[in-house]
């Protein structure tokens, strides 16, 4: 005997509008729409940092502005709220597009001014059914120096033009005057115009794809599908939090070296508390209030309250293809506590341009917090390096032409409980510039580009390695801004793994006029024929180095990742003439060094 679907048992949940099969189809469809938006930006943007570096993100939201699917990047805040605060949803119309880059007005939803956000509502049968967003890092938006970001800034107004939430397109009509003002503030307006066109095309495409999904399945079914996916992610992350953290408070500290103005190290102190609420349900509270005060220089991170949960969510989802990167991560936390005036919640107008250093250290600290709680998160990673070369050269017509090369350089990521750390990664899916592209596009010649040997922290699973780039300057004159962190406080290792290597910037290495640059500095003058060598840091190791297989250590030595000297010192493996000396290795490994929970230049019970 069969039972009709509508005859639900007493106390059972009512049937969902979206059945399990449709749910998986919609999950795949919204993911495909989000990816297609990113592909369009990549193929049509003008500036190298977007087109080649791929510093852009897209996302889709439900009718309430809650993120339904986003990029695998733990820096998204509450993107829609800043627009809703100025333009309530009932005032929106089909064909509208909204724009902002205002960090303080958005509570850090966008965390430095170069990132431009476009948001468009999706209308179906006269009602808002969702939103689509595209954002990208624009190469130059005015400010103190070309590129807009500099260690020298002390005020956000020195970092470029600020766009409050603005209705850029009203019922399909573009506010050309607003765009003209914005492009006029750029030293490279052609790039700015092209990049904005790419972003606009992306949100149009996203809106079209979402409308197609709604028309296929109905607004009611899609609404229910997004709610189910959100609930699924939130439930999964909370379950993982409960498995990792017992009741109590867990703490971790990490630090950036300097703010470029004489202050440092600057520490971020975070904690996670699991407790029982008055209703008997678990509560998870993330607290940053003990972090150091805000900095004079531009390393402040205006942390949106959604970011810690997003970072934890991405970790606990672990690449599960059945899950979706959405607001379920932020919703898994019951509270995020911030202290105004701290490095993670600075007061306006504190500069924010180099908040990437602090963001990367915060993400490493969250890994540390998970390890303290009993999880097995990766060891610490390096913060990606940014070299900004500005100047002029004589072009083929014999005229002086200015240029701006913003080169983001890959670093090593931390060793994991199941694998080595990833080598030479800039940030998530973003890429290092190819040599051919650099030499064709800028007045430089690449003399070398490869792995930075011994930069990965030793461990059962080795930390990822950084890179070495050597540029010969072909420009008539150039001025270098460099951003390297983790020199004084290198990325920590965990479970017996050792800390990763540090980065450096050296002009004319090996020559009589060799000089080492301050790792966070601007105004470094370079001339034609000078050679700039940049080395980036590696990730920390995971597990005792003596537990790494002899075969893996030999492979690292032969591959140029580890030197024979470090193989013997750190791994206890003696390599001579390309082969393992088994007797010497056995003797060396018999003297197994004692370890502690973490390692930063020495073994410690906790990072301070």
How helix-rich are the residues, as a percent range? Answer: 25-40%
**Rg, nearest Å:** 25 Å
How are the strands ordered across the major sheet?
Answer: 2-1-5-4-3-6-7
Mean pLDDT metric: 95
Strand content: 15-25%
Structural class label: alpha+beta
Poorly predicted segments:
1-11
| Tally of helical segments | 13
Question: How would a crystallographer describe the biggest sheet?
Answer: 7 strands, antiparallel
Oligomeric nature of the chains: single chain
The N- to C-terminal Cα distance equals 67 Å
Tally of strands:
25
Tertiary shape: globular
Pfam families: Hydantoinase_B
Protein name: Hydantoinase B/oxoprolinase family protein
InterPro entries: Hydantoinase_B (IPR003692), Oxoprolinase-like (IPR045079)
Domain Hydantoinase B/oxoprolinase: 19-545
What is the compact description of this entry?
This is Hydantoinase B/oxoprolinase family protein. With 608 residues, the chain is α+β, with helices and mostly antiparallel strands.
């Amino acid at each position: 005997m069969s039972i009709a679907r509508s005859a639900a048992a007493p106390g059972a949940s009512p049937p969902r509008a979206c059945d399990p099969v449709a749910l998986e189809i919609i999950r795949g469809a919204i993911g495909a729409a989000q990816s297609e938006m990113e592909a369009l930006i990549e193929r049509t943007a003008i500036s190298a940092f977007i087109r080649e570096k791929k510093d852009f993100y897209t996302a889709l939201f439900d009718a309430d502005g809650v993120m339904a699917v986003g990029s695998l990047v733990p820096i998204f805040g509450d993107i829609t709220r800043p627009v809703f605060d100025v333009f309530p949803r009932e005032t929106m119309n089909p064909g509208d597009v909204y724009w902002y880059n205002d960090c303080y007005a958005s509570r850090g939803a966008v965390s430095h001014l170069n990132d431009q956000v476009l948001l468009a509502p999706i209308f179906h049968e006269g009602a808002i059914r969702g939103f689509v967003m595209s954002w990208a890092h624009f190469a130059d938006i005015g400010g103190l120096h070309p590129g807009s970001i500099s260690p020298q800034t002390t005020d956000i107004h020195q970092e470029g033009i600020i766009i409050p939430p603005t209705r850029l397109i009203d019922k399909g009509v573009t506010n050309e005057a607003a765009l003209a003002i914005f492009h006029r503030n750029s030293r490279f307006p052609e790039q700015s115009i092209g990049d904005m066109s790419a972003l606009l095309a992306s949100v149009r495409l996203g809106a079209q794809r979402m409308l197609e999904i709604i028309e296929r399945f109905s607004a009611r079914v899609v609404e229910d599908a997004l709610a189910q996916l959100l609930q699924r992610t939130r439930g999964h992350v909370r379950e993982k939090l409960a498995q990792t953290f017992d009741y109590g408070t867990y703490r971790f500290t990490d630090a950036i070296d300097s703010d470029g103005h004489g202050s440092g190290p600057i520490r971020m102190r975070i904690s996670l508390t699991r407790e029982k609420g008055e209703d008997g349900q678990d509560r998870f509270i993330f607290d940053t209030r003990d972090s150091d005060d805000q900095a004079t220089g531009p390393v402040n991170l205006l942390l949106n309250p959604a970011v810690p949960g997003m970072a934890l969510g991405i970790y606990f989802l672990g690449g599960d293809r059945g899950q979706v990167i959405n607001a379920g991560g932020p919703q898994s936390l019951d509270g995020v506590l911030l202290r105004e005036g701290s490095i993670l919640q600075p007061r306006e107008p504190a500069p924010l341009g180099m908040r990437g250093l602090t963001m990367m250290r915060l993400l490493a600290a969250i890994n540390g917090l998970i390890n303290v709680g009993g999880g097995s998160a990766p060891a610490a990673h390096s913060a990606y390096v940014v070299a900004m070369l500005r100047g002029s050269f004589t072009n083929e017509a014999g005229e002086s032409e200015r240029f701006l090369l913003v080169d983001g350089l890959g670093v090593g990521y931390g060793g994991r409980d199941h694998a080595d750390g990833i080598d030479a990664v800039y940030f998530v899916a973003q890429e290092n510039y190819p040599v051919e592209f650099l030499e064709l596009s800028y007045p430089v010649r690449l003399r070398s580009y490869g792995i930075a040997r011994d930069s990965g922290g030793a461990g059962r699973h080795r930390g990822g390695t950084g890179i070495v780039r050597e540029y010969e300057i072909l420009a008539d004159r150039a001025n270098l801004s460099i951003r390297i962190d983790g020199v004084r406080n290198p990325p920590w290792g965990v479970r017996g793994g050792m800390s990763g290597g540090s980065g450096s910037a050296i002009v004319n290495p090996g020559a009589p006029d060799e000089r080492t640059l301050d790792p966070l500095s601007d105004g470094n003058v370079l001339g034609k024929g000078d050679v700039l060598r940049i080395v980036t840091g590696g990730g920390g190791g995971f597990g005792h180095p003596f537990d790494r297989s002899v075969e893996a250590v030999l492979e690292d030595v032969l591959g140029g990742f580890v030197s024979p000297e470090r193989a013997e010192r750190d791994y206890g493996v003696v390599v001579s003439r390309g082969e393992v000396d088994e007797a010497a290795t056995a003797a060396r490994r018999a003297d197994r060094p004692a370890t502690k929970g973490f390692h930063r230049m020495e073994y410690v019970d906790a990072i301070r």
